[in-house]
Amino acid sequence: MSVLVNKQSRVIVQGFTGTEGTFHATQMIEYGTQVVGGVTPGKGGKMHLDRPVFNTVEEAVKATQANVSIIFVPPAFAADAILEAAFAGIPLVVCITEGIPVQDMVKVKHMLKSTSTRLIGPNCPGVISSEEAKVGIMPGFVFKKGPVGIVSRSGTLTYEAADQVVKAGLGISTAIGIGGDPIIGTSTLEAIQLFMDDEETRAIVMIGEIGGSMEAEAARWAKTYATKPIIGFIAGQTAPPGRRMGHAGAIVGGSEDTAAAKMAIMRECGIHVVESPADIGKTVAQVLSVHAS
């Protein structure tokens, strides 16, 4: 099995006819994802990549029965795009857009509470269920089917971890790039809970960053409730306190925000912490071999 997306997922692309939307929709289609159409206001009724274009998400859902939307809309309009998809009843919305104003995301986060929509992102690489569906911008060829779930705040480290796990003779059930912004739709803990409930996922890789408390929250939950091993890595170990790093969310504030503090909490809670991203794959293999014996 997989979580969030699979071969049955029916995907629309918001910002379909733009440069980014076109490029990544093409890649998703080539991966085997069911991209059933897209939305570009003012271009409804046309065809693009042999799929229909609609003016609104509501029209697209009625015509295609889409249940997933991926958003490639400029930052100024992305918050409205998320809410449009949610109010059209789409259960899963993946927002790739980087640079959405924090104030816009505060509004989105509040308004999503009145819907049944799950948001992944923004500022994320998306979601991929290996050899089933790719709803995002990750390089699909890296991902092979297997028993390891990945949840990550970092895009590139998601691909690196997947590559290592595959080369260690294992594979990936689903990888969820939750995004690096201060306000995102789905937290590290919520992603881990999805994997805990997935029968085919036997181990979870959790890739975090400095800043915020998501990794600590997930670790404390896992200490009591985890039924599968978690392998954890925190990026930004050499970052100076108070310095804003590449991701908008990666800034050290309180005492638990540093990489060292997060790693200590994770260890205390029974998570297998790796010091270097180069050790993720072999650690996953070691942990799973121990659990299998």
UniProtKB/TrEMBL annotation:
InterPro entries in the record: Cit_synth/succinyl-CoA_lig_AS, Citrt_syn/SCS-alpha_CS, CoA-bd, CoA_lig_alpha, NAD(P)-bd_dom_sf, SUCC_ACL_C, Succinyl-CoA_synth-like
Pfam families registered for this protein in UniProt: CoA_binding, Ligase_CoA
GO cellular component: succinate-CoA ligase complex (ADP-forming)
Residues given in the record as substrate binding sites: Y159
Annotated binding of CoA, by residue: T17, G18, T19, E20, K43, I96, T97, E98
Subunit annotation: Heterotetramer of two alpha and two beta subunits.
Protein name, entry field: Succinate--CoA ligase [ADP-forming] subunit alpha
Native organism taxonomy: Bacteria, Pseudomonadati, Bacteroidota, Chitinophagia, Chitinophagales
Gene from which the chain derives: sucD
